[in-house]
Amino acid sequence: MNDIIDVHHHWVPLHQAKDLHRVALPGQNVREMRPGTMGIFHGDSMLFWCSEQISSIERLEANLDRCRVQTAVVSVSNWIEWLDIAMCRDLNDSMLDLKQRLPGRILTLAHVPIGEEGALDELERCVSLGVGGVFSIVHLTRLGWSLDHPGLDSFYERVHALGLPIILHPACEPLEYVPGTPPERLPLSDHDLLTCYGRPYNTTVSLLRLILSDVLDRFPRLRFIYPHFGGSFGLMKQRILSRYFDLGMRDKLERRLRQIHFDTAPPRWSRPECRCAVETLGAERIMFGSDHPVSEHYLDQAVEMVDSDWFSAEEREQILRANAKKFFGLSAP
Fold first, then answer.
1. Residue 39 placed within a domain
2. Extended beta strands in 76-196, E state
3. Which domain covers residue 152, as residue numbers?
4. Is the pLDDT of residue 193 over 80?
């Protein structure tokens, strides 16, 4: 079947991706990673990279066709961490142009600097452009806020009223890594651990703070997609939550978790890890995500991983298409 839905697919307009130097923050540096690919670094840890690979519309369409993906839910990955309100407006216009160039293939998201001046106005404008949800990282780096921060109430009130889902992406660095923190307090600063473990870590912490707060009780129509099986949550739910279950919070937490969904990105999981995530989170709460084009063959590998005997036929149908169609209210192509 050619109606796979990829809820974790990236694209950055070329005109924004050409000059990373203009957005690099104090303590960050920009350097060439390989011919044609530039990256923003914090020390030796790569935070974000960009090349023609992530900006080519022709390549995006060819990849979707080759891998039998009907619809891609498109975001800019961690690029959102550097975007002010003006760049977000420009980006949202570019996303609309992308959707119009590939009719029926792209579901766009509102990219706004959540919690900052102008964000709600830009959210309203994005709704008029026909977005299918809101994009954010798992915490707001510039503000130093986690997603349970009371300063986000006005944002959640509007998103709740609009009935839009919030699609999340790991942040580049845990919130603990703020300017002025002594180097000896940064255990993830070596061996590129910020990338390979920092992101699962900050994703898991974000999810835990959200479900342990009352945000989801106060806004019962809020829905989130947490990336990467929820960080380590998909493998450690019982281990992490058991102490709260012992305090009589099981029913409350399980109720809140019904507002949380997950994706399968990236295609670097083993069969035991995938089976653990399905049995822990439930196949009905998991959607297909590729993280393409972070790696040239991620989309192919992601489809191959899910469309395999690692999953039952019913699970494959749910993950590859049925769950996302229901979540986003998509009709058959």
1. no
2. 106-108, 110-111, 134-137, 139-140, 145-146, 166-169
3. 4-13+53-328
4. no
